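Researcher: We're teaching a course module on how sequence relates to structure. For the next exercise, students receive a sequence and then see the predicted structure as tokens, so they can try to spot secondary structure elements on their own. Here is the exercise chain.
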Amino acid sequence: MEEGLLDSWKEISDHLKRKIRTCQYWEKRHGLPVHRIEDSPKARVFAYKGELDLWMQKMLYETESVKKSVSKPFLLKRKILPLSALALFSLVVITVIIWQFFQEKKQVQLPSSKPIVVIMPFSNNSGDEDLEYLSLALSDMLIADLSQSRHVTVIRRDSVFSILLELGLRRAKDLSSEELRKIARKMDATHVIQGSYVRLGEIYRIDVDTRDSHLMESRGIDKVEGTESSLSSMVDALTRKIKVRLNLADEAIAHDIDERVGKVTTSSPKAYRYYIEGRNFHNFNEYGQSIASMEKALEIDREFALAYKSISESYSNLGLLSKSREYAKIALEHSDRISERERYRLQLRFYGSSEKTWGKAIEAGLKLVRLYPDDIDGYYLATLYFLLQQWDTAIQYYQVFVQNQGISYFPYMGIVSSYEAKGMYDKAADILKNYLHDISEHPSIRWLLAYLYLCKGYYGLALDEAEKLAPWNSDIKGNIYHCSGAWDKAEKEYLNMLDSRLSRDVISGRRFLGSLYLLQGRYDEARMQLSQGMAYANVVGELSWKHEIHSDMAYCFLVSGNPNKALEQNAIALGYAVEAESISRQVDSLHLRGLILTKMNLLDDARRTAGELKELVDGWLNQKFIMYYHHLIGRIELEKGNLSEAIRNLKKAVAYLPSQHYEWHFRLPMAQALLYASLAMAYYKSDELDLAQEKYEEIVNLTAGKLSWGDVFSNSLYMLARIFEQKGREGQAKEYYKKYLDLLKDADAGILEVGEARKRLAVLKSINAQ
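Model: And here is the predicted structure for the students to work with:
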């Protein structure tokens, strides 16, 4: 048998370590490269290992990679604060602008027309395999150098990589004119640049062909020669020649930003070789190997800022945000070794990672968008507005990139979530469908469409979309089953996440299970999952995970009737929030502490905590966090019996709530269930049964808004039964008592509401029997 050839479904499935049916499904729905001797579905199949491996790498890259931002973050924040993970460094870290600027209603302008260039990997005409690394190294250096220009838009290499995979062009060199035209059309590029190189003795010669993307006519071929040590200088010379080919005015070229590429990358060919090796690993989700390659590059050039930046990105994609921030700081210390454009990007990300340094992030972000208004990182401005819940302004900024039909899916995620938050689900769905039809079949977009259907309660459509993501869909399927009431199936999907090779999946799986078990009154099992999650988070050492998992445990103890333990866990969580320098996480923990103290009837202490919370919010950028102060004050007044004051504050808190949507940056939940429940209880105690019923029914009918509040959902069923019984609607009372008892059939012993529901249901049945 030919080496690398697989000639049956069994051998294919063994190679991929999947069931035969799964492989057949992949071929039908996702283009698994399986061949047939005859053109018939029943013909004997065969496949090449190399093609299968490349296809699998593509799938992993597109479904699990966060690629410069969080593509699919998996952390579902247990608490209600939608910005509580904001202060941590990730690839979607926040760009911040001055609060006064927030109030300015300036129209966002689309960037002016200028050449859009796609640079292909170079062809190795030397016949020397040892020089193959230059194929990507030279194109990458040219991308880095030309990207400094204010007058040219250069497509990033990761975008080129994605398009090549999508079009099935495994060889990025020696492409036909038609193939190049397809690539350019996908990216709306006006020009395509191809290059080749050869070594003659000690002399390297590089040829570059600049082509018009419409007719694929050459604008001219430029040649440079030099030694290995002068490769970066040769790229500098080519950049200037290419600008002339692009018809830039002499004055524009003379005054353009153009640092030497050796200065803004590295002058060491060997260090660059390891850098390119590391970026290739990064693109295929092999973050550990990428970090190792970057460390080799840094052994040669300790000031290679882009290598530090790449390590930071790899740690971020692994969810190790503290480690990511550490390397970003080192990169920033060497920021004189990167281009002005990259420097602003790096400052924006690093300073935006801590709420204490948002002022510096403001400065960097404004400089970036002023110099490069079409830079994709400019969408972080929209991201900030999104996180501040200024949906209309966020949409304006996202629209710049959506109207340009950019290949990057991150702006689409943001604009879709913004429309969802405004309750404009049809508009959001149209954007997602248009992306899939006109731009790319991207799994992250499919995932968002599934979540949108979940928000709307269209569970069948949501599952249809989720199935298209198999086998990497346990998180979204679990959430769909959770919201739709198929709790056994939800549990199975969440358990699948514990086998993931990604740490963030494992942590999320533990937390999802904890919330599901709270829903069912299985408090011991919830604590067990969270305890295992704590151990895992402590091993990894990520502060954000430690804060979240201890907060989850504190809430679990509160719900299950152990407020002293809840306070202990909450204090630990607050310590991690302070260590992470996260204001939002501190607000989170103070809010929970206040709820615990209120439950303990330590109302003076609870009010002092509310004061601390308000002081934090008053001195912070996001004034909408005041809703948590109003919620806490409302709960305190409710405990005191001051019902009118409680209702007044709780209505203020509820007024800040958006429509249910996907917080795509950190996969955080909505707060609807918790806030509605407090207001419903205040109405109930005020004997306003119709208003109480309305709010409890809203909770029961929530989708994403109840995901993290299982105990609130189940308690709402119980309270609806009580309300219907008080109204004399015995049939509906029995219905909801049964729903509540069915849901808690495996609950821990000693839950008072379960015993009361059984007694009341028995009474109602006996009355009907008479």
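Model: If you want an answer key for the exercise: Strands lie at 5-6, 35-36, 45-48, 116-119, 123-124, 153-154, 191-200, 203-212, 218-226. DSSP finds 37 helices and nine strands in the chain.
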